[in-house]
Amino acid sequence: MLSTDATLWPMIAHAVLVFFLYWLLSRKRFEAVRAGSIKAGEFRDNLREPPESLNVYNNLRNQFELPVLFYAVSLVLYVSTADNWGTVALAWIFVLSRYVHSYVHLTSNRLRYRRPIFIIGFFAVMAMWAWLAVWLALN
After folding, report:
1. Is the dihedral angle over the CA atoms 66, 13, 87, 103 positive or is it negative?
2. Contact 41/96 with Cβ under 8 angstroms?
3. Distance (Å, rounded) from C-alpha 20 to C-alpha 55?
């Protein structure tokens, strides 16, 4: 099988998205404090998120839901040498869907567009897990 760094690059690309979202959340929260929407100390207990940063906060939380399964399957595929160009393509489809999903979430936030983008990524990760199961059953 493949077992090259090609399997790792989609995970790195997703991490870049997460780092960007943390930076954006920090900036939006700073702006909310400066505008007086929230006091800086209120973030300590994180009981509420100001409207200025709510979409970013929610989007960042999304990056630790389905992507957890993406990271797990990517690493298992890599370590078990079950990765191949198909799984790498599926990984890139997932990561691209996360970028587009984040863009829609942070701009128009229209569920009409977000949902199909999410489903594309969902099926990409599901296909990666299905391939892993088939590969393990046959090897």
Report:
1. positive
2. no
3. 14
- Which residue did the predictor score with more confidence, 89 or 40? 89
Residue 93 · residue 124 · CB < 8 Å: yes
Half-sphere exposure of 16 (CA within 13 A, CB side): 9
- What is residue 44's predicted lDDT score, i.e. its pLDDT? 78
> At 3, is the pLDDT very low, low, confident or very high (cuts 50, 70, 90)?
low
Instruction: Report the alpha-carbon distance of residue 60 to residue 49 in Å, rounded.
Output: 13
DSSP result, 69-108: HHHHHHHHHHHTT---HHHHHHHHHHHHHHHHHHHHHHTT
What the block records as the tokens of 38 is 């929230």
State the Cα–Cα distance between residues 114 and 112, nearest whole angstrom: 6
Closest alpha carbon to 132 in 89, 63, 72:
72
Q: What is the DSSP string of 10-33?
A: HHHHHHHHHHHHHHHHHHHHHHHH
Amino acid letter at 122?
F
Tokens of 124: 């990409």
44 token code pair? 């300590």
